């Protein structure tokens, strides 16, 4: 597929200003499960092309300063069995649990005070070519160990050991590496007078962040006032801890930019275990078409038909601030090859969730319509019918 074949389509999709709507649709009919599908849990997707190198969240997974592991991280305050319209999970996590990233403010308090949080991390560093190396497992990652490896711009260590200070310093001094992944925390090198940068576009305009920043007033399913407080600092360097350690709690996993699992709207899928950990990463990552749909109506079958989305398009993102109607969603499932839909609206959408993955609450303003590579990665929340998701579009 070339970009030119979409040109007539793109010209038809005129942008019009519209106020963000945070309303939540309440009516939905979803087809029930005919046979009894079984969820699949994978570590490798796309015929061996995609490796999931994040851990599934479990109660006994390692968590910072917790001897017994993470503990319970998921609750179901609203469930279909209790008469709710949908299943709606609550999650609570110390942020340094399982697979996670450190911001400069974790170990260096003046960076914390200056606002170097995870939202200031450079997505261009976090996404791109990387080298996976194996280091000896019987020692920490010292300068000597680092020196013995071939180094690249990003580097991942498979070792079950942590960096020593001299190992980390050697890395900063002797390589171009800006991203390090290991099983233990690394030491950040401090600079003078730090000022954090918040961006929506990274890598010289190549990478668009289409996820919303979490704020207390962002839309959240089932809450009129928005998400509310989502972050606490139970241990801080100012209180004598050796690092800053945040605790996050999302009253609903359907807050801001997130993905629905089949178990959100269909209880039989919930019972069968179709949680976010069973979503296909091959569907959530790959070429995608961003279109703009009229902002004065919901996304009906007629609207979908008018977009003339070519066969073969598997991932489609709508910039519209509107929700799908049932007939719009059905039309899509029946008449296109689309398996991933992303919308900037937050709604209880009317999908047969077994067919199509729905990402809601995207931030698609100011992103030109066209073809991109999308990368959408949910958290591996075992048992959760929804998850926060970080989605980016790469030109
Ligand atoms: Zn950490
Ligand atoms: Zn949702």
UniProtKB/TrEMBL annotation:
Question: What family does the Swiss-Prot or TrEMBL record give for this protein?
Answer: Belongs to the Cyclase 1 superfamily.
- Organism (species): Gossypium anomalum
Q: Does the keyword Signal apply?
A: yes
The UniProt keywords, alphabetically, are: Extracellular matrix, Secreted, Signal
Q: Where in the cell is it found?
A: Secreted, Extracellular space, Extracellular matrix
Which InterPro entries does UniProt cross-reference here?
A: KFase/CYL (IPR007325), KFase_sf (IPR037175)
Q: Which residues form the signal peptide?
A: 1-20
One Pfam family recorded for the sequence: Cyclase
Q: Its Gene Ontology molecular function terms?
A: arylformamidase activity
Biological process terms from the Gene Ontology for this record are: L-tryptophan catabolic process to kynurenine
Where would you say this protein principally sits, based on its record? secreted
Q: What is this protein called?
A: Cyclase
